[in-house]
Amino acid sequence: MGKITQALRKIQEEKEKKSKIQKTIEDSNVVKDNFVKKEKEEEDFPFSRGKEYSLKNKAFLVSKKDISGIDSRIITYYDPSSPLSEQYRILRTNLKSILRKIKATRRNIKSSNFASVFTISSSLHNEGKTITAVNLAMSLASETETRVLLIDGDLRNGLIHKLLNIEAEPGLSTILINDYEWTVGLHPTRKENLFVIPRGEISPISSELLSSRKMHIILEKLREENFNYIIIDTPPLLSFADAQLVTQFTDGIIIVVEANHTKAEVVKKAKELCEQANNKILGFILTKVDYYAPDFYYYYYNYKNYKKDV
Ligand SMILES: Nc1ncnc2c1ncn2[C@@H]1O[C@H](COP(=O)(O)OP(=O)(O)OP(=O)(O)O)[C@@H](O)[C@H]1O
Ligand SMILES: [Mg+2]
Question: Is the CB of 206 inside a 6 Å radius of any atom of ligand 1?
Answer without folding.
Answer: no
